[in-house]
Amino acid sequence: MCSPRPARTLPRWPSVGPRLASPRVTSAIALSELTTLRLGGPAARMVDATSEGELVSLVQACDARDEPLLVLAGGSNVVVADAGFDGTVVRVATRGVDELERSDGRVWLDVQAGEEWDALVATCVDNGLSGIEALSGIPGSVGATPIQNVGAYGQEVADVIAGVHALDRESGVVHALDVEECLFDYRSSAFKRDPGRWVVLRVSFAFEPGEESEPVRYAELARRLGIDEGERAPLVDVRAAVLELRRAKGMVLDSRDPDTFSAGSFFTNPVLREHAFAELVARARDRLGPDVQPPSWPASHHRYVKTSAAWLIERAGFEKGYGNPDGIAISSKHTLALTNRGNGTTTELVALALEIASGVRDAFGVELVPEPVFAGHSWLP
Ligand SMILES: Cc1cc2nc3c(=O)[nH]c(=O)nc-3n(C[C@H](O)[C@H](O)[C@H](O)COP(=O)(O)OP(=O)(O)OC[C@H]3O[C@@H](n4cnc5c(N)ncnc54)[C@H](O)[C@@H]3O)c2cc1C
């Protein structure tokens, strides 16, 4: 466990995002109003935590009453049941950014869980801090980023996280976990592997100062910037290019664009053992032709490779836009995003997801794993 020195609040780090505007305790509110999929029935009880102490005590009070608890922040990675959530929803509305004193040349920020992630990215880019510029445009809160180790365009939040303060609901104790203890992996962490156990209170980041980005490690982004992979570019240019690429895929929230009414990518990219990937190549060639080569990238574990869920879904016969044009359908811009075009239900969303997963299993023998978290219901029937 790390024990950071006391934080000092600096005026140049104001709270970075807009505040939640809802009442502090609510009951009848439909969770569809608080999720980017615009799906989900009511919560039995809802309460906003506006300080770290309040967040801890609200969660502990729920646990003492043995009441089901849903910790909710931006609602951008959660699929809530049509029947809603029969328990307490605690909304993470904590704010504050402190700079920590360190002498390693990096800038250390301690950020409360309820701060808005993309506002933090914008602030870092404006202040010449590199490391999260390629994570521009991801909706949601700072506190949720360690949960699934958010990543995009060649960067992962784990690259800049120095530690996480989190409440362990099993012991009732707040821990300062260092980065090794967070067990970060592709779309995974100690928090994700033990669902519901940890409540992230604040996240410590260590950023390199400078106007240039970290080396760009994503081919499409490098091409857009007119540089080679591995080169750097001005932070502002990287943020602008990422936002442009993401908008074209419906991956930046936009109330006018139903392609963005999603939970982002619905499935993670499968990570396969080398022999399972060889079987996939054989099945793909049988089905699609002898020259076909499914995409692959090295995975973090030895003898594993990562392949593309979007490639598998498309080759299994599910095209962009597949589904109900007024309800639940695959985004017309991005095969991995399942969207609610207006009149959809969670039941229909899960049915489409299961149809896609079963189509990919039948075609290629690969099991797709959903990325969002399910609340009030489970993924498998
Ligand atoms: C259009 C769009 C694009 C997206 N693009 C990306 C992308 O490029 N890369 C990527 O990785 N993700 C992406 N996502 C997914 C999502 O934005 C991220 O996972 C984000 O970090 C979720 O934050 P949130 O505050 O909305 O979490 P919520 O949806 O509120 O919660 C998600 C889960 O985390 C838990 N949780 C939230 N806060 C805490 C906390 N403080 N402590 C403990 N548990 C907590 C919740 O209980 C829930 O289980 C995208 C989503 C959308 C809608």
**Largest β sheet strand count, sense and barrel closure:** 6 strands, antiparallel
Distance between the termini: 39 Å
**Poorly predicted regions:** 1-11
Strand content: 15-25%
User: What ligand species are in this complex?
Assistant: flavin-adenine dinucleotide
What coarse outline follows from CA principal-axis ratios? globular
Number of helices: 8
Question: If you average the pLDDT, what whole number results?
Answer: 92
Helix share, percent: 10-25%
Note the main attributes of this structure.
single chain, 381 residues, alpha+beta, 4-stranded mixed beta sheet, 8 helices, globular, binds flavin-adenine dinucleotide
Briefly summarize what is shown.
With 381 residues, this protein is α+β, with helices and mostly antiparallel strands. It has eight helices and 19 strands.
Fold topology:
Blueprint: E1 25-26, E2 43-49, H1 52-64, E3 69-72, E4 78-80, E5 85-92, E6 97-100, E7 107-112, H2 117-126, E8 129-130, E9 151-152, E10 155-156, E11 161-168, E12 173-178, H3 190-193, E13 198-209, H4 219-225, H5 235-248, E14 271-273, H6 274-288, E15 297-298, E16 304-306, H7 309-315, E17 328-330, E18 338-340, H8 346-364, E19 373-375
Parallel strand pairs: 2-5, 3-5, 4-19
Antiparallel strand pairs: 1-2, 6-7, 7-13, 8-13, 9-10, 11-12, 11-13, 14-16, 15-16, 17-18
Bound molecules: flavin-adenine dinucleotide (FAD).
